[in-house]
Amino acid sequence: MSREDEIIKERMRKLLELRKQKINPYPYSFEKKNNISECLKMKLGAKVKTAGRLMTKRDLGKIAFCDLTDSSGKMQIVFQDKETPKKEFEFFKKYVDSGDFVGIEGKTFKTKTKQVSILVKKIEMLSKSVLPLPEKWHGLQDKEERYRKRYLDLIMNPEARDVFAKREKIIDAVRDFFKKKGFMEVDTPALQPLYGGAEAKPFKTHLNALDVDLYMSISPELYLKRIIVGGFEKVFTIARNFRNEGIDKWHNPEFTMLEAYQAYSDYNEMMKIFEELYESVCKKINGTTKVKINEQEIDFKAPWKRMKMSDAIKKFAGIDVEKKSAEDLKKIIEKEKIKTKGNSWGYYVAAIFEHFCESKIAQPTFIIDHPFETTPLCKLHRNDKECRLIERFEPFCVGVELGNAYSELNDPIKQKELLEEQQKRLAKGDEEANPLDTDFIEAMEHGMPPTGGLGVGIDRMIILLTGQNSIRDVIFFPFMKPEGKE
User: Fold this and answer.
1) CA-based, 20 to 30 A from 486: which of 62, 133, 169, 285?
2) ω into residue 303 within 30 of 0, thus cis?
3) Pick from 118, 133, 148: which residue ends a domain?
4) Cβ atoms 484, 308 nearer than 8 A
């Protein structure tokens, strides 16, 4: 029998013994009057009644020391002969293990080492743990195990709890930023009869009540534009998106995205909003606009650098795409064995940028003026006589895209043509192409004002502002390969 099996067997014995003694090891409630952070601030000698998980247990005979934790912090509790009633001390020794939830009553005092603690007068079992906790330095170092069993990660690693507490504050700060700018928060459906708003393969499901196929939302964009058509001028949503794509340090099939739309504005206004958002949230959360990422100091202070995609390619790859034909670029694509989504000048430019440039952009930078092939939802660039570019930007930092924004296309005739072309690509097997949404086109035909649209990757923002290494560090339950599956 392994050491762990012995521990489990002993805990099961204690559990049965508690039941024999008519003591419920899983009572319905407990009147917790003080959380631990409050107890730590109270005057010495104050009476307290608190509860939490017992993390450590050191029984030295006539005195015992334990660490008790709750969501507010950690505090030492002490059982002492002639101070703690004999019945309570014996109960502790006989039935209580690390990992158990207990309720205690006592008074605050300082130990000989000057540590503020609680001298226990009464203890109650609130939840008897059957499985032992991992050892602090040996049992929960495997990252896969931490992600797969997040509850153990949260129990054993205060740093993990801090990240998720910060996550909530960041999302609150983002929401507060947009509301102060007069944006109204709205909801959009997660289940949609047609998907759209991004190039991504969707998840498909079926609604039995109506006997129709539905798709999980890959983006709230087309619904938010319908709301703009309806007369609301500044709207945003913080939504879950679902994309049937690969999993890596920046991607999870389910993720959180903010999208915002403002009537009578364009991508220039969206750039200002984006950099102000990052600057504001970073200062609110960290007290500064600077963060350290991979040993490099990144400064989110506005204004950020603006760089045309063609200029970025010239800088980082030494290729002047504006002076090269599609055939010239195709030769580079073939030589470098770069994958492209299509065969045209614009597709080649986008692929060359991704291959040579993205990883080299460290400080926050807006990459502006993309080829028109990269999205069917954006206006042509007002100053491009050749009609090869659109008014789109993507902000980059530490080699990764942080968001996406356009001067939104509001010409219903042109929009229909572009989505019809997308539908043809879809029919030919392009799983990331957009289907033709005729209801969306009809909404556009009723008139949509000039509009600036903005998408912000919330999880990526949290990764950067909390100094984490992966999206799996900032999502409570990231997708994992099933255990035992090759």
Assistant:
1) 133
2) yes
3) 133
4) no
